[in-house]
Amino acid sequence: MSEALALVSNNLPIPSALGSLDAYISAVHRVPMLTQDEEQDLAERLRYENDLAAAKRLVLSHLRFVVHVARGYQGYGLPLGDLVQEGNIGLMKAVKRFDPTLGVRLVSFAVHWIRAEMHEFILRNWRIVKVATTKAQRKLFFNLRKSKKRLGWMNHEEVQSVAKELGVPVATVLEMESRLAGRDVGFDAPQDSDEDTPPAPVAYLVDHRADPYESLANQDQEDNQLEVLTEGLARLDARSRDIIARRWLKDGEKATLQELADEYGVSAERIRQIEANAMKKIRALFVA
């Protein structure tokens, strides 16, 4: 399937090929959207028959959604076209991993992959020196950017408010703010430097984490965990799967126990029990 999607990616419309970003956006909005039945049929053809044409239709029909997500990240000062292309990579990864038996729409599954690629791109390019390297720091980076009401350093009250809102220590907020406000330093020495110029970071910085084996192992672990989660969801009944998806996997505001209880005609406590039992079954697969 990866070879098929590679062929699809080579045939996707890109802004440079169409002459401008506006032309690209106009083109992808003219691609017809798929009905749920059409999407299901295409996903099954891709998964079970490795159908290249089905993969292409799935990707093309969701390119407009990538543009929509990319617009939400324009505040970081990066070109929209670059964000869109990174998001397209995430979309293709999602199409490759999409399981049509789960009973969810592709867009709900793909949004996490699209945003993940955009987040990586932002963190790689927003500063020459990375401001966030761990998962927790990345979460704080994006939340702090949203929470800051003005340019410049935050006062004591603002720091306290952000720390309370994000549930992190004040020291953590201050550390991340200092990273955000830090000035970029050229990695290479300037061309006109002389012997009296201090050495550039390229001369003395060592990346002790540059271990290809470890990177491959981490990626393999993430892929394995995703497969286990997918398998766990597939083993649940339709109601349990829907409750888990809307309580834990849905992007944005999650459904409450009472909302689901009203929809299924049971008590909120019954929904909590179903959720707990489903989570127990899924966790059992991770420790097996």
UniProtKB/TrEMBL annotation:
<protein>
    <recommendedName>
        <fullName>RNA polymerase sigma factor RpoH</fullName>
    </recommendedName>
</protein>
<dbReference type="InterPro" id="IPR036388">
    <property type="entry name" value="WH-like_DNA-bd_sf"/>
</dbReference>
<keyword id="KW-0805">Transcription regulation</keyword>
<feature type="domain" description="RNA polymerase sigma-70">
    <location>
        <begin position="82"/>
        <end position="95"/>
    </location>
</feature>
<feature type="short sequence motif" description="Interaction with polymerase core subunit RpoC">
    <location>
        <begin position="82"/>
        <end position="85"/>
    </location>
</feature>
<dbReference type="Pfam" id="PF04542">
    <property type="entry name" value="Sigma70_r2"/>
</dbReference>
<dbReference type="InterPro" id="IPR012759">
    <property type="entry name" value="RNA_pol_sigma_RpoH_proteobac"/>
</dbReference>
<feature type="domain" description="RNA polymerase sigma-70">
    <location>
        <begin position="256"/>
        <end position="282"/>
    </location>
</feature>
<dbReference type="InterPro" id="IPR013325">
    <property type="entry name" value="RNA_pol_sigma_r2"/>
</dbReference>
<comment type="function">
    <text>Sigma factors are initiation factors that promote the attachment of RNA polymerase to specific initiation sites and are then released. This sigma factor is involved in regulation of expression of heat shock genes.</text>
</comment>
<feature type="region of interest" description="Sigma-70 factor domain-2">
    <location>
        <begin position="58"/>
        <end position="127"/>
    </location>
</feature>
<feature type="region of interest" description="Sigma-70 factor domain-4">
    <location>
        <begin position="232"/>
        <end position="284"/>
    </location>
</feature>
<keyword id="KW-0346">Stress response</keyword>
<dbReference type="Pfam" id="PF04545">
    <property type="entry name" value="Sigma70_r4"/>
</dbReference>
<dbReference type="InterPro" id="IPR014284">
    <property type="entry name" value="RNA_pol_sigma-70_dom"/>
</dbReference>
<dbReference type="Pfam" id="PF00140">
    <property type="entry name" value="Sigma70_r1_2"/>
</dbReference>
<keyword id="KW-0238">DNA-binding</keyword>
<dbReference type="InterPro" id="IPR000943">
    <property type="entry name" value="RNA_pol_sigma70"/>
</dbReference>
<dbReference type="InterPro" id="IPR013324">
    <property type="entry name" value="RNA_pol_sigma_r3/r4-like"/>
</dbReference>
<dbReference type="InterPro" id="IPR007627">
    <property type="entry name" value="RNA_pol_sigma70_r2"/>
</dbReference>
<keyword id="KW-0804">Transcription</keyword>
<feature type="DNA-binding region" description="H-T-H motif">
    <location>
        <begin position="257"/>
        <end position="276"/>
    </location>
</feature>
<comment type="subunit">
    <text>Interacts with the RNA polymerase core enzyme.</text>
</comment>
<keyword id="KW-0731">Sigma factor</keyword>
<dbReference type="InterPro" id="IPR007630">
    <property type="entry name" value="RNA_pol_sigma70_r4"/>
</dbReference>
<comment type="similarity">
    <text>Belongs to the sigma-70 factor family. RpoH subfamily.</text>
</comment>
<keyword id="KW-0963">Cytoplasm</keyword>
<dbReference type="InterPro" id="IPR009042">
    <property type="entry name" value="RNA_pol_sigma70_r1_2"/>
</dbReference>
<dbReference type="InterPro" id="IPR050813">
    <property type="entry name" value="Sigma-70_Factor"/>
</dbReference>
